[in-house]
Design brief:
heterodimer; A: 348 residues; alpha/beta; 5-stranded parallel beta sheet; two-stranded antiparallel sheet; 14 helices; 7 strands; 46% helix; B: alpha/beta; 11 helices; globular; disordered N terminus; binds thiamine diphosphate
């Protein structure tokens, strides 16, 4: 008896064109620059906090690039800046959560197809399953939208991930469970976090096909995600992708990685920089030249400068929103609290 | 919250639209109609498909509406509620069930951190039209965790609404109403009342049962209750009447939002109040009700608001259940305390 599930759909999509390969690089360059700038902005007091994703650009851009915003839906955590950018979302809106202007970003998730930024680890993994089952119910015969849920190796310890994988497999829900295994859950390394060797290994227990992919190779990530989407779209149920990557630097701007690893360990364990590696590949394949990389960098800097200005322009949200957004149909108690608040604090 | 639906028919008058139903049948009928009227509504949970739920509230609904609309999930409460979030995001109107009140605890993260906050977090763009049905409260000598009173816990959470019917007629109308709202509603069904019959007028204009209900008019004192405690308070009122005490019984129905106006109206008239609930005393909803009454009726109150409640102990086993749940004697003592109160 064999227990290893396989990806049912053959992904016969054409290989990436040179144009697409260059686009992937441009995205990674912007994400790298935005991510490192955000850390600087935190130091400068422009934003109070941020969760960097240095080293995860390939995993994020490669997977986010496979999303079809006309029909798919992404359920992120707090570290998916690169996914958001690859999905071409408004990055000022995205950063407003880190600016502490609002919880969950400024999006209309229905429009952006990007659920609110999630602080409870694994909190939205089940939401993806529910949304995906909704696709099955809405379009039983056609090609469905696919939900992609992002979470870390640490989050995979949460019971909700088990419930989600089990539900999705039982219901054959079109969900891509995208694990970014960046080696660490704050200070705890994967080997102290994940029993059974890997998150992908667990998928077999649910009868879910799983792939482990080099998360520092943007093309490999893109192709794995694309074929997972094809598998889901054709009604074959969920897929687990575990992208093996490395979180360089701190967990968040409040973290001190020096307490749990040395810089030397970081340098050795992190492997090759995903951006430098992709650049080398494009150069040696003759897909791009130095002029292209210089231009990509210039564009990245220009875009990030616009985003910085946009963030600095974000004023505080009007306090009345505090009361106005709790319910669709507000309660009398809430309305009277809003009135009292207005009278007592808005004495202009 | 302004309207108050007053006394409903207690017997079958033979009028059209009036049926004698148990609360279980009334809830089942309401769900059947919700499924028929709203193609986006879905019922799911543990054993609610083929079995029709351990209390048979969803009996026959899967056979009638299909396995897509009414389905069994794996045995996982967080899964059920977390999936509800995604289904709501996909445009559905989930009506999930947790099998027993105590099993809402494993789902509390999804209920409090996710369902209750999504509307806020998404700036009103992702409503959570979820009606969570929770067979609630004690009185059936069930095992541990099968009889809990979670109303204060849920009512305390911003973003949730909480309702509990006390009779088949209200059960029908409140569930139909709750299941068409755009906000999350915790629907607490008093499981000890599931098999009690009563007249259900499906044609009455209770289409927006948004406030409290005067279950019995009285002049001397108001008993405030909800769920299974309403019928007990009505019994107490009968007994008190034999001693010439005219008790009004206010069935709160909505535990969030609480119908403050109905409290003011009733206690403004009777000038005395006792709150009766099954949940533990400390930080229970009785305190909230007492405060709302004090604030609105302070000048006319003749005595401090009294509370007759469960105790601050884990819900006891079946043999002690009758000691724990407010019984007729304890409620009568509560009434006596407010009637005999003398100022300093
Ligand atoms: C339920 C929950 N418990 C604890 C935390 C605090 N916390 C935030 S991130 C984190 C580690 C998460 O690690 P992982 O899932 O591997 O993701 P990564 O941060 O490495 O991207 C912890 C413990 C949290 N946010 N949510």
């Amino acid at each position: 008896m064999t227990t290893k599930p396989t990806l049912a759909a053959v992904d016969d999509a054409a290989p990436l064109t040179h144009h697409q390969l260059r686009e992937l690089y441009t995205l990674m360059a912007v994400v790298r620059h935005l991510d490192t700038s955000a850390v600087a902005w935190q130091r400068q007091g422009i934003i109070p906090g941020y969760a960097p994703e240095l080293g995860q650009e390939a995993a994020q851009v490669g997977s986010g690039y496979a999303v079809d915003r006309s029909r798919d839906f992404v359920f992120p955590t707090y570290r998916e800046l690169g996914v958001a950018r690859a999905m071409e979302l408004d990055m000022v809106g995205y950063m407003s959560t880190h600016k502490a202007t609002w919880h969950g970003g400024m999006y209309n998730p229905m429009e952006s197809r990007f659920a609110p930024i999630q602080a409870v680890v694994a909190g939205s993994v089940l939401h993806a399953v529910g949304w995906a089952h909704g696709q099955t119910l809405s379009c039983p015969d056609g090609e469905t939208g696919v939900a992609m849920t992002y979470f870390g190796d640490g989050a995979s310890s949460q019971g909700d991930v088990h419930e989600a994988m089990n539900f999705a497999a039982v219901m054959k829900a079109p969900v891509v469970f995208f694990i970014q295994n960046n080696g660490w859950a704050i200070s705890v390394p994967t080997e102290r976090q994940v029993a059974g060797g890997s998150v992908a290994a667990r998928a077999a227990g649910y009868g879910i096909p799983a792939v482990q992919v080099d998360g520092n190779d943007v093309v490999a990530v893109y192709e794995a995600t694309r074929s997972a989407f094809a598998h889901c779209r054709n009604g074959n149920g969920p897929v687990v992708i575990e992208a093996m990557t490395y979180r360089r630097g701190p967990h968040s701007t409040a973290d001190d990685p020096g307490r749990y690893r040395t810089l030397e360990e970081e340098r050795l364990d992190a492997g090759e920089d995903p951006l430098a590696r992709f650049k080398q590949r494009l150069l040696s394949d003759g897909v791009a030249d130095e002029a292209f990389f210089a231009e990509a960098q210039r564009q990245a800097e220009e875009e990030v400068e616009t985003i910085r200005a946009g963030i600095q322009d974000l004023g505080p949200r009007p306090g009345a929103e505090m009361f106005g957004l709790v319910f669709q149909e507000p309660t009398p108690a809430l309305q009277s609290q809003a009135t009292a608040w207005r009278e007592e604090s808005e004495h202009v | 919250m302004s309207e108050t639906i007053t006394a409903m028919p207690s017997t079958n008058t033979g009028a059209p639209g009036i049926q004698q139903l148990s609360m279980q049948q009334a809830l089942n009928l309401a769900l059947d109609e919700v499924l028929a009227e709203n193609p986006k509504s879905l019922i799911f949970g543990e054993d609610c498909g083929r079995l029709g739920g351990v209390f048979r509230i969803t009996d026959g609904l899967q056979a009638k509406h299909g396995e897509d609309r009414v389905f069994d999930t794996p045995l996982a409460e967080s899964g059920i509620l977390g999936m509800s979030v995604g289904l709501a995001m996909a445009g559905f109107h989930p009506i999930p069930e947790v099998q027993f009140d105590g099993f809402a605890y494993p789902a509390i993260n999804q209920i409090i951190c996710q369902i209750a906050r999504m509307n806020y977090r998404s700036r009103g763009t992702v409503p959570m039209p979820i009606t969570l049905r929770v067979p609630s409260f004690g009185g059936i000598r069930a095992p541990e965790h099968h009889g809990e009173s979670l109303e204060a816990l849920f009512a305390h959470v911003p973003g949730l609404k909480v309702v509990s019917p006390s009779n088949p007629h209200d059960a029908y109308h409140l569930l139909k109403y709750a299941a068409t709202r755009p906000d999350p509603v915790i629907f607490m069904e008093p499981k000890s009342r599931y098999w009690q019959k009563g007249a259900v007028d499906t044609t009455s204009d209770d289409g927006r049962p948004t406030g409290a209900r005067v279950a019995r008019e009285g002049r001397h004192l108001t008993l405030v209750a909800w769920g299974a405690m309403v019928s007990r308070c009505l019994q107490v009122a009968e007994l008190a009447a034999e001693d010439g005490i005219d008790v009004e019984v206010l069935d709160l129905r909505w535990l969030k939002p609480i119908d403050a106006e109905a409290l003011a109206r009733s206690v403004g008239k009777t000038r005395r109040a006792v709150v009766v609930h099954e949940a533990p005393l400390t930080s229970g909803l009785g305190a909230e009700v007492a405060q709302l009454i004090t604030q609105q009726c302070f000048d006319t109150l003749k005595a401090p608001v009294e509370r007759v409640t469960g105790f601050d102990v884990p819900y006891p086993s079946g043999d002690l259940e009758d000691e724990y749940i407010p019984n007729i004697d304890r409620i009568l003592f509560g009434i006596q305390r407010v009637l005999e109160y003398r100022r300093g």
